[in-house]
Structure formats: structure tokens, C-alpha cells
Amino acid sequence: MYSEKGTRDFNIIPVEKFNQCISKKLGFGDWLELEEVEYIDPTNVKRNWELCRRKKKSKHDVDAIDIHAIIKNINSPQIILVVQYRPPVGKYCIEFPSGLIDPEESIEVAALRELREETGYTGKIQSISDPICYEPGLSSSMTRIVDVEVDLTNDSPTQNLEDDEWSLQVIKVPIESLYEKLQELQKQHSENLLIDSRLYTYAYGLHAAKDLLYCKANNNN
Ligand SMILES: [Mg+2]
User: Fold this and answer.
1) Which residue range forms the structural domain that includes residue 6?
2) Of 54, 78, 93, which marks where a domain is finished?
3) What Pfam families does its record include (predicted)?
4) How far does the centroid of ligand 1 lie from the alpha carbon of residue 24, in Å?
5) Residues 6+ away with beta carbon under 8 Å from 93
6) Total number of domains constituting the chain
7) What is the pTM of this model?
């Protein structure tokens, strides 16, 4: 059952559902609420946690979508990213295009709308992920990753930004060298630029896979 001390094999993790209630409203603004929630753990201990929740509601099990917009129809595939100023960290961030789902929208419509507004591009949806949490120790906010193959017939993409997206710029980066390009950009602008954790993990995964798969291929020879 245990593969090493304290570590279980992945397929027998016990996960239980806990009834959780809001025990205190700690504060609120125009977009966000700060709450304290309460639940009883399996040993009957009452526990509390502080969290941040978005006020904007969607009918889905997630409140946002993140878009992997890939330009495939060229020799070296590229990914479309956005760079924007993020007041909570006081710096610009490189991120996937993303946004909140409007109350009556489907996931598909929200993804293509956000992609079009933020980057001017549109495309065809290839797949939609299960719900993914953003920062589960801090916030209830969740997303689905929508893979989009970009339509290249639109050769003059035009953004349609909201007022609070005043800083948003679009960049296209070759997927083959994504990890290295992100590192280059961060080195160039080290005082003022951060890489979003989801994007970093995606890029690092591609980078690490090259080594891991290369090792595997060599070991098999
Ligand atoms: Mg956005």
C-alpha cells in the first residue's frame, strides 16, 4: 500500500467530501469577498480557513478559462501569450490569454470571446480540461484550460480590450524554445516582469520532457 514511508501509491489516496460553511464574512470589495469557512475533519476537530472568493458568479463549476492558443500552420508551431501589468504583484506578468466566464456563457463561447478580445485571434477549440484550481490555499477561483488551434486566415488581428486591460500586449513565441525564451525575457526585464506559474509549468514541462524522453530513448537502446 505504501511505496515509501508516509507515501501512498497514487491510486489509493483517500479523498473525502467535507461539509463546509461560511462562518464569517471578513470583508468585500467590488469584485472579491474575504471569508472564513468552517468544517469538521475526520477526527471530529472543527477547523477554519480564510479564503478569497470572486463575487461574479458563473453557472459552471469554474469561474474562468485559460487558453492555449497554438499557431500550427507553420514549420515551427507558436503559442500566443499576453503580457500585462498586474497590480497585486506590482509587475508585468507573462500569461496565457484568460478571463472570467460571463453568467450565461458556455465555456466554449467564453474561451473564443476572451481570445478574440485580448489578442484579436480566433480559432477552433480542440479540447477542454477538467476543472483546475489556481491557488487553492488562497482562493476558490478555478479554471478550465481550453486548447485552441488558431485560425490563420485572419492576418490583421485587432484587440478589443476592456479599460482595466490598458497594458495588455500580445506576443507569439515558438513552442520549441518556449522555456528558453521566457527565461530570456525575464532576464531582460528582471525588475519588472514575472512569469505566471501555469505558463512556467507548461514551458518547464516541455523543456523537461525533452531530457526525460531523450534519456528513456537512450536507455532503451
Ligand atoms: Mg484576462
Assistant:
1) 2-54
2) 54
3) NUDIX (PF00293)
4) 30
5) 83, 84, 85, 86, 193, 194, 195, 196
6) 2
7) 0.88
What is the Å distance from ligand 1's center to 46 Cα?
37
Question: Do residues 98 and 64 touch, judged by C-beta distance below 8 A?
Answer: yes
65-74, 78-87, 103-112, 153-162, range with the lowest pLDDT: 153-162
Instruction: Give how far Cα 154 sits from Cα of 93, 136, 188, Å.
Output: 26, 38, 31
**Strand partners for 139:** 52
Whether residues 39 and 112 fall in one domain: no
Residues 40 and 83 in one domain: no
Distance 48 CA to ligand 1 centre (A): 31
Could you tell me if 77 and 165 lie in one domain?
Answer: yes
| pLDDT of 3 | 52
For residue 168, the CA-to-ligand 1 centroid distance in Å is 9
